[in-house]
Structure formats: structure tokens, C-alpha cells
Amino acid sequence: MKSIVIAAPVSGSGKTTVTIGLMECLRRRGLRVAPFKVGPDFIDPGYHRLVTGRPSINLDSWICDPGTVQEIYADFSEDADIAVIEGVMGLFDGFGGRSDDGSTAQVAKLTGSTVYLVVDAKGYARSIAALVAGFTEFDPELRIGGVIFNNVASENHARILREAVESNLPSVRVLGCILRDRLLHLPSRHLGLMTVDEVDISQEYLDHLVEVIRGSIDLGMLWAAAGSGEIVDRSPKTPAAENRVRIAVARDAAFCFVYESNLRLLAEAGAELVEFSPLKDPCLPEGISGIYLPGGYPELHARALAANRGMLEAVGGAIEAGMPVYAECGGFIYLSRGVVESPGGIDVRHDLVGIFPVATRLLEQRKALGYREITLRGESILGPSGAVARGHEFHYSEMEEMPPAVERLYQVHKGQSDLGTEGYRHKNCLASYIHLHFGSNPDMATALVAACEKYKNA
After folding, report:
1. Domain holding 36: CATH number?
2. What is the value of pTM for the model shown?
3. Nearest C-alpha neighbor of 248 from the set 286, 209, 199
4. Hey, what's the torsion of the CAs at 19, 23, 26, 28, to 10 degrees?
């Protein structure tokens, strides 16, 4: 199997556009493409899935230990002809400045992948060679297969860029130059690109993208330089347990941010996962013993969610009956009193489930972003007191102050900084702004399934 990483010096260079273009070109050649995304990103993987027809899997070497990253990579790529991994931020950006922990570069080395650097060439001429030299020479252990210049102004601009690299860096391949093209633009908003469900990725768009990629990039050179994707010390694959419980998983335009690895670990622990839509379905699926409410954009769909009173009452009733419910970020918002909007300066609240007695308001500025590590302060549906897991937090909303009477189960850290307590519990419902990756502690998936089984048997 071949394996490549599409990286960049900085965010906003065009990684996603190039990545989905390459995926579509490879798919049209009849190849089985396994898509991956470095870091805690839920939006780009939606585009990968649309093109490849397979779930795109997050690879995060800070949240998960190196062996787990390799195991996830191996499990989700075992039947593929090529793995295409989209990087995050700049190539060497990760958890901090002292090491490559959590970076695209570290994931490339862990997966045996060749890196192709997408560089936004706007405003550059010969100086582009200095930039490329810095990135290709910074880490001798990293295999750089070549550079792709994006946002190129003209054929003459492309000629200058090629001359600059070829005359000063003869060992670096220039795989191609993509001319500036407004038709390739993907719309974005506060959490990044708009989700694939909200953007019309038409066949015409994909046809045009493929035409541009084929006409701009030497795909033969890219294929020849691609890594083998070979890894070492792969852990034995855990056989899936017999289905013991049904867990309902919210999946629609309002709830579209979930780690696919979480779902896989729950299934391996014995859960039959049943998708449902809080936006459209009148009630919960039959025969369930637990609910998973992942993140997404409930604040943008608050009116429609509030109008579906049958679902709100069903979820609230399940929680009050003691059913295990795990909610993160958008799922947490869904369980609050509601989302407050202020059209014309007048507050209007769209009432939601109301398990937690606070309202949520969308902000213009980002409220929180970054990695988080949590320690359980008591026994819960995710495991015993003292259990540790990692994840991330990213949102533009804030809640009113939670009353002291509501139990806090998480002790939260960001690096060496203690961020206090979070993770709110009501009966067997645990909700938080933090997206936990069960790959950082697989026992949490096992514990959640066990809690659902206990509820079922009771």
C-alpha cells in the first residue's frame, strides 16, 4: 500500500482542496483510497468521506500514544491501495514548541508516509526557495516527496517559482503549480470550512477539480515517491464483542462532529450503534439502552431542534429514567435550557432538553480552543475515579454559570495548567464541552457499554 501526507507551512494554504482533488483522481483510477485527517478536526473528514465513500479517521499523536495511532492507521487502511492523510496547521505544528508531538510531521513518520508540501505562493517569487528549504531540511527523518504551489497568479509566476526551487534546491521536486481559481473555493465560517452537508459539492465541481489537479500536478511523480505505509509493532486487532446493547448515536446536520474511532471502540466493546436525527426523527430508536450526543452545530439549528418537541421529551425522559447518556460540546448544548439569540437586540431563547439549568449563547469571538486532559473525580459511566483521557475543546459558544449543585466529574488540564472542573452529571447523563477521544483510554468505551448493559438488565 502507498501512503501520502498532504501538508503545508501554515493553515489556509489549500490542503483540503488539494487533498480531495487527489482523492477523487485516485478513486477515478479505480484505486481504494483510505482517508485520514491529522488532529482533532471533524469538518475536513466529511469532505474526504464524500469523495472516497469511506469514513475519514483522525490520527492524533498527542491525544493517543504512538502505538495507538499506528493501530488506528493500520486498522482503517488494511484493505486500501493508498492512504491519503490530510495534515493540520503547519507541518511541524503540534502541542508545543519543544517537540513534534501532535504534529503532521510526527504522524507522517509513525505511518511511514511521504509528505507533499502545499505552499500558497501568493506574493512569492525567488524567496519561495528559502521557505521550501526551511521545511525540507528542518527534520532529516521526514521524507518530503515534493512541493505543490497553490494560488499561483500566472504561467510566468509558475515559471519563476519552478526556477527558484530547481536552481537552488535540486533535490526537491516541484510536482506542480495550481493557478488561482475562484471556482475551487470552499466556503467557511466560525469553526472552519462549512460542513459538507451544507455545501453543494456537485459533480461539476469535482469534474473541474479533477481537471485542475490532473493538469497541474505530476501524478506519476507523486505516486512514484509515495511511502510504503509500512509500520512496526502493530498491536493485534481486538475482535468485536457480541452485541449486548443498542446505543443511539445522533447524526445529522446539527450533530456531525464525532471521532470515528470512538464509534469503532464502542462497537468492539459490544454496542450496536443506531443512528438517529434529533432534527427530524419524532422519537428515539426502539430498544436502546444508551444515547451518544456528539458535537456539531446545534446553535445554528436551534429553531428546528426546539420545534421537535417529541424528540426533546424523549431524550429528557430517557435521562430522567436513568439511561446512560454521554454528550459532548454540541450534545451538551442540546441538553441545556436552550440557545439564546438576539435579533434586533432582543433576546429570544429556543428551548431545548433542559436537563442542565443554563442557557447557551453563540459568540462572535472564539471561546475555547485546544487540547485537554481530564481525570475522573468519581465513578461514572466512563469508568472509575482516577481514569484519565485526552481530547480537545473548540467552540464559539458559552453557557451561563452552572449552579454549584450540579456535580462536576472532570478535573481538566491543559498541559501544566489546571483549568478547574467540568464534566457535568445528572443521574447517568454526563455532558461536557470537551470532545474525548476514547483511543486515549479504550477502557472508557468498555465502561460506557457496561453501563448501558447494566441499565438494560435493570
Report:
1. 3.40.50.300
2. 0.88
3. 286
4. -130
* Triad 133, 137, 139: Cα angle to 5°: 145
Residues 109 and 257 in one domain: no
Cell of 175: 510536482
222: three-class secondary structure by DSSP: helix
Q: What are the residue numbers of the active site?
A: 329
* Grid cell digits, residue 454: 447494566
Instruction: Say if residue 328 is in the same domain as residue 204.
Output: no
The pair phi, psi for residue 257, each rounded to 5°, is -110, 100
| Statement to judge: residues 145 and 254 lie in one domain | no
- Split into its structural domains, the chain has a count of 2
Question: Distance between CA atoms of 75 and 234, rounded to whole angstroms?
Answer: 10
d(CA 452, CA 382): 11
Which residues constitute the domain of residue 354? 245-457
Q: What is the pLDDT of residues 344-359, one digit of tens each?
A: 667 788 999 999 999 9
The CB density around residue 414, as the number of other CB atoms within 10 Å, is 14
Run of H or E residues at 392: strand 388-395
Listed in order, strand segments (DSSP E) in 166-318 are 174-179, 188-189, 192-193, 245-250, 271-276, 290-293
Q: What whole-number distance in Å separates Cα of residue 352 and Cα of residue 131?
A: 50
pLDDT tens by residue, 134-193 = 999 999 999 999 999 999 999 999 999 999 999 999 999 999 999 999 988 877 654 556
Residues 25 and 369: their CA atoms lie apart, in Å, by: 34
